[in-house]
Amino acid sequence: MMTNCSGSSHIASKPSLGRRFIISAPSGTGKTTLCRALRRCFPDIRYSVSYTTRPPREGEQDGIDYHFITKEDFEAGLARGLWAEWAQVHGNYYGTSAEFLEKTVAAGQDVLLDIDVQGARQILKRFPDSVTVFIMPPSMVELKRRLTQRGTDAPEVIDRRLTNAASEIAQKDLYRHLIVNDQLDDAIKAFIALIGAYR
């Protein structure tokens, strides 16, 4: 797989404020791969690292995979309105720092947020000018094939992911842009061209 960054690094004029790019997609749609390709083309884009109260898993690094904090610190942040979006999953908190988003954009830097649909809704309430992109699978049949082919999930987990995917796809109109990841190379080119046009 080749990443085509042709023409994407040219910037005619840079605005004084940065932009927030929100990327969402059902599990198995290729969002992580697309975001990695984008960051290779635009290494100056800041990446929003989420905060969580769950313990680090083997190989995870603080500040790279997540910012690991205590439940008390997270709840103190809730009381102070520090989270641009947050959720509680399996007893652990996850959230995005509003201060990071505000300071990064104020400094003229773009920031990439890889978050789910519910998180995107929360971000848009606080930052309605965010650029939103939803990555679609070509079909639910193909999505099921990809999830099965990964070989990492039990059948009941795959069924749950497909149910969640249908719910997320039903909310796609929340997003300003849609990209269908049918052929990965084409989807990468479309994604890079889209973000490049804003930059």
Total count of strands: 9
Compute the CA-based radius of gyration: 17 Å
DSSP strand (E) fraction? 15-25%
Number of helices: 7
Number of domains: 1
Q: Please name the fourth-level CATH homologous superfamily.
A: P-loop containing nucleotide triphosphate hydrolases
What does this structure look like?
- This protein has one domain: P-loop containing nucleotide triphosphate hydrolases (Rossmann fold).
- The protein has helices at residues 31-41, 71-79, 98-106, 117-126, 140-150, 155-169, 184-198; strands at 20-24, 46-47, 51-52, 67-68, 83-89, 92-97, 111-114, 131-136, 177-180.
- The strands form 2 sheets. The protein has a 5-stranded parallel sheet with strand order 2-7-1-8-9, sandwiched between helices. It has a 4-stranded mixed sheet with strand order 4-3-6-5.
- The protein is of the alpha/beta class.
- Residues 7-12 have low confidence and may be disordered.
- The chain starts with 19 loop residues before the first strand and ends with a helix.
